[in-house]
Specification:
Distance between the termini: 23 Å
Helix content: 40-55%
Number of helices: 13
Number of strands: 10
Structural class: alpha+beta
Radius of gyration: 28 Å
Largest sheet: 5 strands, mixed
Strand content: 15-25%
Order of helices and strands: HHEEEHEHEHHHHHEEEHEHEHH
Shape: elongated
Amino acid sequence: MNYEDSNIFDNIITNENSLTELFRNFLRFKVFREAFVDLIAHNNIDKSEVFHNFFQTQFYTEKNGIPDLVLSSENYEYVFEIKVHNTELTNNQPLGYLDYLRSIDKPKKGLFLIAPENYIYKNVFFDRLVGNINDPDNVKVEFISWQNIMKLISDNELDETSPLFSEYLYYLNYWFKTIEIDKFNLNIMFSKDFPDSINKVCELIDRIADSLKSVSAIKKSNEGFLGEYGYYIKDINNYELFYGIWFPYWKSTGNPITICIKSENVDKIERFENVCIDLNLPKPITSDNLNDWLCTYIARDIIEQKNCDIIIADKMKEIKQRMK
């Protein structure tokens, strides 16, 4: 079952440099570029006169390092250090960039850190500037989170009007998603009972498979961890059955063991629904995130019984027989 959403940037944007280049490329779009200029300049420069070629990546300063991104014109110079992971700062960052900005004579200058909201070296970046930057330097210093940049896209509804920005926002959300584990989940995670229960469910699924091998040609799923664990029963009569753990289904419904069918034959789908009713299985459901699979599940009262493997195997055999 392919339940993952794919994205046009998958396997292309893989590191800090490629994500920075992608960001610069998106700045060629006027609405996004002007929103970003407003964010960094607070309306102190004419955004309509900022063009895409004013932005340069991997800018060479000769003696003061190579900033990830620079916005440069006759009247302003803005230097950006960009982080997409919790990578450490070099010994030269950000004081080398500060020395570079001091060396040029422009009325507007800025030094920015663009990083995830929870970047662990954020304070180090700004602590290094304390005592080293003075009013006469005329250098504005500011932190911009990637979440701020994502907000520019959504606030301007770019993701709603452009499929390209929709893909970009989805990818940024995926890349910079903050994962917080609450106390309840920590208690589960640090318990020997949780992996033991997963192991027991997998053993149950394998035991059912042993019972089914005599009546059906079954194939074990080869999906990776946290994808699925179960078996496929393929039939020449235009349908395919799966039973086992489908982790996205488990997460969305709370039911660990599912029985699913996929078919383009309407009669097969209706027959599966009727068989589920006859076998006292919950009414099958389908939705967009189930990728056209119609799913029922094994209820808790069945799994609680000592001979649940036999009960489930008998139901699977009956489904297989009735689907002919």
